[in-house]
Amino acid sequence: MAWTGFWGLPAGLLLLLPLLQPQPLTEGPLVFVAVVFRHGDRAPLASYPTDPHKEAIAAVWPRGLGQLTGEGVRQQLELGRFLRSRYEAFLSPEYRREEVYVRSTDFDRTLESAQANLAGLFPEAAPGRPEAAWRPIPVHTVPITEDKLLRFPMRSCPRYHELLREATEAAEYQTALEGWTDFLTHLENVTGLLLVGEPLRRAWKVLDTLICQQAHGLPLPSWASPKVLRTLAQISALDIGAHVGPPRAAEKAQLTGGILLDAILANFSRAQHLGLPLKMVMYSAHDSTLLALQGALGLYDGHTPPYAACLGFEFRRCLGDPDEDAGNVTISLFYRNDSTGLPLPLSLPGCPGACPLARFRQLTAPARPPAHGVPCHGSHEPATPAATVVPLLAGAVAVLTALSVGLGLLAWRPSCLRAWGGPV
Length: 424
Hints:
InterPro entries: Acid_Pase_AS, His_Pase_clade-2, His_PPase_superfam, Histidine_acid_phosphatase
Enzyme class: hydrolase
Radius of gyration: 22 Å
GO molecular function: acid phosphatase activity; protein tyrosine phosphatase activity; receptor tyrosine kinase binding
Shape: globular
Number of helices: 14
Oligomer: single chain
Family: Belongs to the histidine acid phosphatase family.
Largest sheet: 7 strands, mixed
Order of helices and strands: HEHHEHHHHHHHHEHEEEEHH
Helix content: 25-40%
Low-confidence stretches: 1-26, 379-402, 409-421
Structural class: alpha/beta
Distance between the termini: 23 Å
Mean pLDDT: 84
């Protein structure tokens, strides 16, 4: 399915954006970093009625469906070590709570991924440390039903469902769906699933189960040929595109990934204006989180982020002018989706290379929630007000506490996103 980003750039051009020339890392000192990463390898989220391996679930995945695996732990350890090598000169050698804040969704696999990542990032949390030297590092979260920042989908936003319905009723989407009618009928027959109502979402779940089983050495049923897997991947891409792409991609982003993007910018500004020692904010989440954020940045390329994929924001201060508001801060983006290679430098559409902060804000403004909030209860109802920023308390300790409470909540707006299989 061909579509354009909300800046009007064709998808083919967006695919080329990560391949721009590497960004120089010596333009000025690093002052702030935000990283958003997907959890590591996990067991499948579900089975299907004719699954030949459903009786072996307890043996293959003893911790249960949807849980982080040993391979997932290893992937996050490796990601943490990558972050340590990249920021060796920026972060303190050991964890300092005033420098690093970690937020996760309230799922076992993301909480465990955050802990494993931190074990790679900080030596005192590393596995194998003597008992007296080992120190756990806190990971913050909120209940799933209250997570307005990292958990997509949220199911309480009628306006988002209006936008999604507009996308799925478009001629291009319907034509693609009609082309898969015979395939989906065949999939019903071989899986025992009833693909009615949300056929693409349920087809995605079949793909997820097959991929997880294949990755762990289980033979796939005879009907699950490479061609079937490719078709399932195309179906998944169509569904994701409807969620984060046109039409009205910017308005969708305001209700999903734009919230997180706004929070990252707000946390940087607040830390700088208050002179706080905060250096890094880490978010442990899902592929749906990264997809929504990529959509808000205009960088979704039709591919699902793999396990332990990491999208990073690096804020640097240009030399010679200490005034952040004068436009001397730049933002560089990187995307690490392969542990065997270097991360890909990304460029925001319309701003090649390291982007001046003021320009970055200007370009992303259509995808970020406006200060007055956005309507979430229908196109004819008033906007829901933005959440009030946590009041600043007197004293450095009180300010740090207020910031730590607000790190995941700044720039919150009503958010929702229909599941393309739920948080995965």
